[in-house]
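Try this one yourself first.
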């Protein structure tokens, strides 16, 4: 079993897709073909496919989940062609 030093910093990466297509782009980068069958991934796809799905709302929801993880030291935002959502999120949250 690998033991990391207690002062190890953990940073979560948060992709900011704008659509189902963008979500699949990020999934392909992980090179895990079976990810597409994962129930959480399917939930994300359904969210973006729904008429009520908003990329800003999705990103905020994901950020709220990450903020509950005490082990994390920070979040690395990956806006790739979606800086508008990033600026919206950062504008509403002075913590980052």
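Now uncover the answer:
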């Amino acid at each position: 079993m690998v033991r990391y030093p207690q002062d190890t910093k953990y940073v979560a990466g948060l992709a900011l897709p704008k659509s189902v297509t963008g979500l699949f782009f990020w999934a392909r980068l992980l090179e895990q073909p079976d990810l597409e069958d994962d129930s959480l991934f399917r939930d994300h796809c359904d969210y973006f496919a729904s008429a009520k799905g908003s990329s800003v709302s999705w990103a905020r929801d994901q950020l709220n989940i990450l903020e509950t993880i005490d082990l994390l030291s920070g979040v690395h935002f990956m806006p790739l062609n979606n800086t508008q959502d990033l600026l919206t999120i950062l504008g509403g949250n002075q913590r980052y």
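Discussion: The radius of gyration is 15 Å. The mean pLDDT is 89.
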